[in-house]
C-alpha cells in the first residue's frame, strides 16, 4: 500500500484547494471519499473470496486424505476378516474331515420379517358375540346414546 504521512496529505490538500477552488472542494472531497470507500470494500471482498477459496481447497484436500485413510482401514479390516474366515474354514474342514466352504454368513440364521399388519386390529372375540352382548364398537355422542337406549313410550 501507499504510505502517506501527514505532511504529504497536507501538501495534496493545499494543491487541491488551489487547483479546484474552495467552492467545489467539498463536493470533490466527498466524491473522492465515496470512491475510496468503494475501492476498500471491493478489495476486502476480493480478499475474503480468496481466503474462502483457499479454505475450500484445504478442506477438499483434508477430505481426500481422510477418504484415503478410511479406504486403507477398510481394506485392512476386510483382509483380516477374510484371513480369519479362511482359517476358520480350514479348521472346520480339518475337524469334520470334509472340504465344504462354510462362510460366516451360513452359520448365522437369516432374519425374516413377521409380515404382520400391526395397524389392523385383530380381536379374539367374534363379531356376532359382541353384537349379542351389546358391546359398543363405535363411538357415539351422549345424546345419541340416550336416544338409542330411551325406553319406548317416553317422548320428549
TrEMBL record:
It comes from the Bacteria. Pfam families: TatA_B_E. Coiled coil: none annotated. It is found in: Cell membrane; Membrane. Keywords: Cell inner membrane, Cell membrane, Membrane, Protein transport, Translocation, Transmembrane, Transmembrane helix, Transport. The keyword Cell inner membrane applies. It is a single-pass membrane protein. The keyword Ubl conjugation does not apply. The Tat system comprises two distinct complexes: a TatABC complex, containing multiple copies of TatA, TatB and TatC subunits, and a separate TatA complex, containing only TatA subunits. Substrates initially bind to the TatABC complex, which probably triggers association of the separate TatA complex to form the active translocon. Belongs to the TatB family. Part of the twin-arginine translocation (Tat) system that transports large folded proteins containing a characteristic twin-arginine motif in their signal peptide across membranes. Together with TatC, TatB is part of a receptor directly interacting with Tat signal peptides. TatB may form an oligomeric binding site that transiently accommodates folded Tat precursor proteins before their translocation. This is Sec-independent protein translocase protein TatB. It comes from Roseateles asaccharophilus.
